[in-house]
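Hello,

Following up on my earlier ticket. Below are the two sequence lines again, exactly as submitted.
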Amino acid sequence: MKSDIELIDTEGKRNDGRGPQDIRKIKIEAGVLHRADGSCYLEWGGNKVLVAVYGPREAVPRHTQNPLKAIVQARYNMAAFSVEDRKRPGPDRRSVEISKVISEALEKIVLTDQFPRASIDVCIEVLDAEAGTRCAGLTAAGVALIDAGIPMRDIPVACAAGKINGQVVLDLGKEEDNFGDADLPIAISPRTGEVLLLQMDGHLTYEEFNEAFDLAVKGCHMVSEIQKKAIMDKYQTAAAEVNE
Amino acid sequence: MTNEGRQVVIPGQILGDTPTFKPGRGTFVENKKIYAERLGVLNIQDAFIHIIPLKGRYDPIIGDLVIGIVEEASASHWMVDINAPSPAVLHVHEVPWEIEYADTEKYLNTGDTILAKVLSVDESKRLQITLNDRNLFKLKDGHLIEFEPSVYRRIMGKKYSMIEIIQKYTRCRIKVGKNGRIWIDGDAEGIEKVLQAISKIESEAITFGLTDRIEELLKKDAKDVR
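Thanks for your patience. The regenerated structure is below:
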């Protein structure tokens, strides 16, 4: 499907002034909620996401418990005011799907065998949406899990790549997502390069897919650095302030 | 303790190689490399690399003194919340009272607070606690506050120095559970001071000379009162 909208100009500049391999501005803050075991607030371009982590705690109902390991239950929810037209509140087909894929991605990274019969609950609340909320949610969930002190193999991180006007670019914005040709969100474990989540919307040729995938992995590593810095900022400063 | 030892680590961070170092608490090994599995402070003892967690749920160990809140009384046991990933069982045989069948509610009921000891933890992390010891009992009156279980060692201090200082200056009865709960009994002013001290310890848990600063804080307040 070709659209008539100009998303990228002849010099390779996108509508919001980014180059094809630039990500949007990201701001991450860990430990923002008092009553949660771990939390994170993340702004990724126009996305605003709040994540709370509870647990490990007893999994209810009992039949969901696994006697050998913990279960990870992520709940992705979009606020009614997060999109331009009011979204009907409550879980819909889309958010149930995203909850499932994020749960499975996180289950691979959390050391679940340390907490048999327990549940780790991750509540992802999208306050403002502007394309790429599942990536933003998963990235924030990674930080919130660390803030909750949950043992993990690595810090999960997500980023999307896509195709607009026939060109592969990193981290699609709102117009690019709506009128572009394809969107490829992925989540990886940055230490090992393992893929935790991979979805695709639209059409890409084999070559384009490989190009977009490599670009998204590169984006993940960029986001990963921001994640690590946010955690270190939060916990290293506490030590530095008093040691002065 | 040396100054350089206080390094904050995050999951997935490489801490060393296995032949030279040995993996301790809070670490895992992959391809002969030792990685951190949780947020914490690095602690190398002999050749062992440990991580002292900064945050996280209480992980019960046999013999731990804990403060539990009774959730439910059944015919032959109570379920007690001890802040762990799953509730603990307190069997009627593990209390110092003679209890007739189904008479459990007369002795302990929902909402009661007890000072107990972890009796057993099995492979699937099923918990049992006991009240059968001289220093274990049902806690009446007083205040119950919660703290981050990982700062337990700072609240107690070296050879209980910290908790003794707090007790000395506030004249409160204090019981600290390893599961992140503190029970305080005393006058209102004393309790207020304990709360202040605990929140200071919690926020400055990874710093040095904390005991001295807490003593300073409590001393200053003591002067104002007199």
